[in-house]
Write a structure and sequence with these properties.
GO terms for molecular function: transferase activity. The chain is built from eight helices and seven strands. The protein has about 230 residues and is an alpha/beta fold. The protein has a single domain, classed as Spore Coat Polysaccharide Biosynthesis Protein SpsA, Chain A.
């Protein structure tokens, strides 16, 4: 694949046969000047087959590594190909391509991570999930004195220096506790207001109980693990 830009959009995908064509076609139409790669995370459905049939740029992992492994594979590809930035973009259709430019432009101001945030200018609704998000935000602020309003957003763009950290550190996952650790070690992080869509097809792996467990793990990691890493 010849490079069109210095930014690579990484699309981790696991069993997203109902969404992947629509999501990638939307990116190609809205962001034609950006490169992308779909990282098929050992899907058991036709995700990889559809990518091949449609000529999409594809990294096809032979086994399911989970989101962390898929993102690290994408970061390694971005690093080896010499990209200056990489943007995480979900394959389920919730992230909107119209906001890619604004995130990249914000990163170009000399930042290390820019988060596509639902809550820069909008308020969180009252739900258990948003309560969990607020708790994670409070934990990050407690250890870093930096307030991140949407720490669980998966729409993020990373500088090359940050990509390198993901490539060379096995325990770096695309999660709020890693963002907290990066801030603690001097990373400059910003948020840009975005909107997100509802999943149209397929099922999220996070049910209410898993969401609660996830929020608890993140809070514990931020306070008791990441805050004391060297």
């Amino acid at each position: 694949m010849s490079k069109k830009s210095n930014v690579l959009i990484i699309i981790p995908a696991y069993n997203e046969e109902e969404n992947i064509v629509r999501v990638v076609r939307g990116l190609e139409e809205t962001c034609p000047d950006y490169d992308y790669v779909v990282v098929n995370d050992g899907s058991s459905d036709h995700t990889a087959q559809l990518c091949r049939e449609n000529g999409f740029s594809l990294l096809d992992l032979p086994v399911n590594l989970g989101l962390t492994g898929a993102i690290q594979a994408g970061f390694l590809y971005a690093y080896q190909q010499g990209y200056d930035a990489a943007l995480q973009f979900d394959a389920d259709g919730q992230h909107l391509a119209q906001y890619v430019d604004s995130l990249v432009q914000e990163l170009d101001k000399g930042l290390d991570v820019v988060i596509g945030s639902r809550f820069v200018t909008q308020k969180k609704n009252k739900s258990l999930r948003m309560l969990g998000s607020s708790i994670i935000s409070a934990c990050i602020f407690l250890v870093s004195r930096v307030r991140i309003k949407d720490p669980t957003s998966g729409m993020r763009v990373f500088s090359r220096a940050t990509i390198e950290k993901f490539v060379h550190n096995f325990n770096f996952g695309p999660e709020p506790d890693t963002i907290s650790y990066l801030i603690k070690t001097g990373a400059r992080v910003s948020e840009v207001q975005v909107e997100m869509a509802e999943r149209i097809a397929g099922e999220s792996y996070l049910n209410p109980w898993k969401s609660m467990g996830y929020m608890l793990r993140m809070a514990i990691s931020i306070i008791f693990i990441q805050a004391f890493r060297k």
